[in-house]
Request: fold
Amino acid sequence: MFKTNETQMQIHSIRWLKIIDPDQDYITHISTQFSIPQNFIQTALDENASARIQCKQQCTLIMTHLPFIEQSKSEQSVSCKSFAVIIKDHLVFIISKHDHPIFDQMIQYIDQGPEHSAQQLAEHVYRFLELAADQFISASKIVNAQISSVEHELLSSIKHRQVFKLLNHNK
Reply:
């Protein structure tokens, strides 16, 4: 299970790293230093990439999407953007072109807990993907509220037009 030797314990612990919008030099550096296929990192940054799981060179890519809520002065808009979880040995990389609060939430959750073993890796990745799925529920609520508001405005507009039409008809 756990080794008592301190260095062996370090080797078996899991580290989570967040990489947001890296340039080509940094992509090459990460790919070379950690033996991650460079196309995995580039795929993570591709806005049009399809959701999938792919394994190559003892490395796993989990490509998925996440709703990003953008706030302007008068309204909120929701857009889906891609991100990836890349797992290589004892390292888990969260890679995206855009930062999202759940990335830091997950890393903080991992950092605050006790030392995590490789055996818990699947559980933590599943928890992270569950957090991402919860974001879709929140985004759906925002979209539903906006739809209700527009429907209400349309209904009011139709009623006003009908009243004006009746008033004009009576003249």
User: Anything to note?
Assistant: The longest strand covers residues 59-71. The chain has a mean pLDDT of 79. The helical segments are 6-12, 24-34, 38-44, 101-112, 121-170.
